[in-house]
Amino acid sequence: MEEQVSIIVTVLxxxxxxxxxxxxxxxxxxxxNMAERFHFIMRPFFHSFTNYARFISSFKTCFSFRGIExxxxxxxxxxxxxxxxxxxxxxxxxxxxxxxxxxxxxxxxSICETINDVWYCIDKDYHGFQKIEFDTRYAEMFSEHTIxxxxxxxxxxxxxxxxxxxxxxxxxxxxxxxxxxxxxxxPHYEYWSKKEKEFKTIAMITIIITLLTMLLLLLLRCYIPxxxxxxxxxxxxxxxLFELYKLMRLxxxxxxxxx
Length: 259
Prior knowledge:
Blueprint: H1 2-59, E1 63-64, H2 73-94, H3 105-124, H4 126-131, E2 133-134, H5 136-141, H6 143-153, H7 166-179, H8 185-220, H9 226-258
Antiparallel strand pairs: 1-2
Keywords: Membrane, Transmembrane, Transmembrane helix
Transmembrane segments: 6-25, 201-220, 226-245
């Protein structure tokens, strides 16, 4: 009995100090690689995104939507600009860009669809857009900040003249050139994060079961049949193997997303 208990304790100690430690170190490496890749892709996008929102917040003040219909494309355009302007204004007040994980995939997609809708509304009712008043003098007065935001969106906008048609062009370009190439990244990252959370939860449960088994061995081994202790030891070994399997699946998912 004592010899069997000693073997079980040795196995459980090896699982804790060797097996689970190795798994956690490896999983942390996988998580770091994934996070680095995600931020490498998304940080430039959010730099452009933040400056686009700031541009709209600044440029919107040059337009007057007085006299527009209560329904229609121009009313929709006005609502779109107000929504984007609030995002830009929040960034201007905070004095910093939006971090890569600030929005959920669903929220970001909704905002970028609104950005695309700016171009769409202008394209669908260009005649109505021409009736919207544009204050050229006001645009020139505050052009330094507005042009600065444009240049931060993309170098191709540096020094560009502030005209009325720039609103639709920049919005359409942003959606096609900046958002569409990365629209899959955030949903994939959220899915990966969900799987990583599941992996960590199972790992913690496994460690708790292993520690409880060792506690039973130390305190109640005289009252518990050896087959129960052996079964618990086998269960812990099985859970370790399952953890290795989940880690391999997580690594495969990481490689697939990082391609």
